[in-house]
# Entry
Amino acid sequence: MSETLTNEITLTRKDFVSDQTVRWCPGCGDYSILAQVQRVMPELGVEKEKIVFISGIGCSSRFPYYMDTYGIHSIHGRAPTLATGLAIANPDLNIWVVTGDGDGLSIGGNHLIHALRRNVNMKIILFNNRIYGLTKGQASPTSRVGKVTKSTPMGTIESPVNPISLALAAEATFVARSIDSNPQHLAEVLSKAAAHKGTAFVEVYQNCVIFNPDEWNALSDRTNRDEVTLNLEHGMPLIFGKDKDKGIRMRGFTPEVVSLADVSLDEILVHDATSKPLASILGSMENPEYPAPMGVIRDVRKPTYAAGIMEQIAQAKAKRGVGDLNKLYRNDDLWTVSAREENQSEMAGELPLTLDEEYLDELGRAAVETTPVQDQLTEENVSALNPKVPITVDAGSSLSRAIRQMNRHNIGCLIVTDEEDRLSGIFTERDVLMRVTGLVDDLAHAAIGDYMTPNPIALKADPPIAQALHLMSLHGFRHLPLVDEENRPTGVISFRDVVEYLNRSLA
Amino acid sequence: MSLESELRSERVSHLRLSGFTAVPAGTSVRDALGRMRSERNTVCLITKERSLTGIFTERDVLRKVVDVADVLDGPIDAVMTADPISVGPDASAASALGLMDKHHIRNLPVVDASGQVVGSMTHMAVIEWLAAHYPVEVLNRPYDPERFPRKAEGG
# Structure
């Protein structure tokens, strides 16, 4: 038993977090997307060494630095192009392109179109915040008509690009949409994109907290989002609303929103991700006129680009034999480039310690009123939750002893430590259910170290309550250990502590 | 607005409820555990003629099953909590949370008017609701809060 458990190679979100400091603005929606990608990656069952993230230029394009995988921060708008080359050179790789509404639709618009129509085996995530963020707030190809920005002081007069319609026009085989503020939905869509063979295009509505903070207010608001978004599921009727009381039906060639109280369920459109006309209709439905379709809009199978090329190469080889690349290179037109003395690099230098003025101006302007709950989440630290003293055992302890201890203290979570009292694992009642009960015959002779979750994520240095909430909501953790500088456990908090604290202290 | 007042306008059915495993009364504890494991649920609801008669959770596994002899092959009825407290899907999320607090329970089955169980409410539903309600504060955070940029890159 213990052998099969320890032999399993399981990666976690932690394995995909790089050592780089994330340099997005505090509160940027990119953080949420990064966290979801890092969470979904381990579920793919692909070794890290076979995963590559490629980006162009823009805020979203800093993404590859933050993933502990291979990564290329490439040329503006050209990420799909590099990715195409890589997908052909090594079809075994799992390739992700990260782009934005500027990089992907303006500067690299054509590269995107051609990657999509070729059905190269790659996943493209397009962060759509409808603004140029990195260059500090100019109109982007997806900015709405009338949008006042630094480059359009009287409001833009250009019609925006609809990324979904564009992808469908380019014959993309997988087209989906999600939003940064709905992490469960985003994770589901990313998983489905990852499973697709060919180009998967995912538009993610993303909040630029500094230069376009109100763009997605209506769609993000947790109390209202189910009223304004339409969650698509293949084979299921297009029903939406907080109380699932509205649906979409066709009137001639136009979809319309109807109340389920007034029409029969037979009239409601049923989602079919293989239908191209339906995909076009869904792609054209824009909020606020319609609820924004979220989820997989189109998912069809077609041969991939690399497969087609490999087939042609095989045919050519069969007909003309294996070629000689060296001979081809050295054919003619050769010259020698001699080395030149290198200049000293002027790149190095300390980063300025202060925020620049333009950024501070924007921050100052965006002074939005916050609710007491918001204030508590960011201003109160986890120590305010009165963390419980951790009950610790060493990794060699038997399961029977551990279980006795949990029952004696009436707790659902034990902290496992190593010889130097440092955190080495966590063992919870969930593990008792999932891995022990009825599966382990002799509890007295099984060591807890073989059944615990090793190297769990822990909270260090008393972070804000929001950080605990972040980890709990993202991973479904119900307990979080607190550790000191030496990684020695100092406390443990549960999801119940957090909710009850917020509920009580504000009552 | 306090958390309580924010949750007052949300119904239980508006939250993301947890999944559950459903077994008929008389099922053996061993079979129920097997189902919970394969369905990856930590809550098992026991029904008799489609109405809810008991609840069996991971805490019960820890307290009453794992190191207790001769329980595994007995009926789940012996280790479940009979007649559990439940709420309707239209109850306010705040009142459901109050109920959990008052009775010290961590799983609250949600049963609709026809007696059908639609899910189980846990504190995780509130955590997820809060996260989506305050994405800027909760979701949009770096993995390591100690590594924060000294200067924003671009916007």
